[in-house]
Amino acid sequence: MSIPQHVVKGHGTGNDFVIYADPEGIYEPTADEVRFLCDRHFGVGGDGLLRLAHPEDVADLDAERAERLRAAGAEWMMDYRNADGSLAEMCGNGTRATALFAQTLGYMEGPGGAPLRLGTRAGVKILTSLGEVPGLGGNVFHIDMGPWKAGESQAYGVTIPDHEGSARGTFVDMGNPHVVAVLEDRTGRSLADDATLPAVADLDLSRKPVVDPVIPTDQNVEFVRVDAIDEHAGTGEAFMRVNERGCGETLSCGTGLCATAVTLRQLTGIGEWTITVRGGTLRVRVTDDNVELTGDACIVGEVTLRR
User: Mainly resides where (predicted)?
Assistant: First the structure.
């Protein structure tokens, strides 16, 4: 096998991963190995695989891209693979799980220490360890997720096989592609008047949503309920579920949380959101220039693989 014998299992608010370090650049996984490790019945189980390696040791990066990451201060890269073995540009929850793993290895300082500049296929992400934060968890990290791009508001149709109804979605690029659909609005602002899909909690997201017009790269699709808005404080609260390309529904999606906050800012003007997913609660702050994500991570345990 081209993977080490010892791996760890971790997650970021329920978005779970098989994780290992490859400081010598000798354990580039094959797609079959990723699928095996992420299989919940025959492998370790996970929404994806995180390999912590130096940028120059990630085979799909050419020398120029690897050098750009190094020049931006990224000694380490999160080489992320979806559970189906495909490469992924970015994973917000994965960056936090990777950072916590890096702390255990001494590659990153703890709370109060220097941030980690982590390379990804979507550029360098800056993570700061906050330790325990009430309401968020015991191993919380703040991530500067970098710039975002959004398309025309609600320009995409979204349906789900075997569900009646439809919704309108907004395309958001967080380094990976998203379409965000608001299905419920409990604030009286008519944010979901065009949505006829069932309530967010009632959706069967084991079924891959259909987006029209088709996005060639495929996409993650987020379904959102807006719960509260405080105009005076400039904050909001929401609930989100997500179907991720390459793995289906996950309990959380970091870039999806950011895309949701970008969409809600576009609809309401509110830029700071506390968003609950099935795996926990996170905070997102959106400005004209970037997105910041704050949430917990956990290392569950170590696994010794049998050859």
Answer: cytoplasm
User: Taking 70 as the threshold, does the pLDDT of residue 1 lie above it?
Assistant: no
> Three-state SS for 224?
strand
Pick 6-146+296-304's CATH classification: 3.30.1490.20, 3.10.310.10, 3.40.630.30, 3.40.30.10.
Answer: 3.10.310.10
Confirm whether 253 is a catalytic residue: yes
The DSSP line for 162-215 is T----EEEEEEESSSEEEEEEEEETTSS-TTTT--SPPGGG--TTSPPEEESPP
CA atoms of 282 and 152, how far apart (whole Å): 26
Residue 93 annotated as binding?
yes
* 176 marked as part of a ligand binding site: yes
> What mean pLDDT is reported for the chain?
96
What is the rounded CA–CA span in Å between residue 303 and residue 282? 28
Catalytic residue (one of 91, 247, 258, 298): 91
Q: Does 92 belong to an annotated binding site?
A: yes
For residue range 268-294, what is the model confidence (pLDDT) as tens digits? 999 999 999 999 999 999 999 999 999
The reply, when asked if residue 243 is annotated as ligand binding, is no
Distance, in Å, from the CA atom of 114 to the CA atom of 195, rounded to the nearest integer, reads 45
Q: For the segment 145-160, what is each residue's pLDDT rounded down to a tens digit?
A: 999 999 999 999 999 9
Catalytic residue among 38, 247, 253, 258: 253
Residue 298: active-site member: no
Q: Give me the residue label for tokens 């320009």.
A: 155
Rounded average pLDDT over 40-55: 97
Q: What is the pLDDT of residue 271?
A: 97
Token pair 């259909």 in the structure block, residue: 210
* Measured distance CA(115)–CA(97) in Å, rounded: 14
Q: Which of 304, 297, 299 is nearest to 105 (CA)?
A: 299
Known binding residue 244? Answer is yes
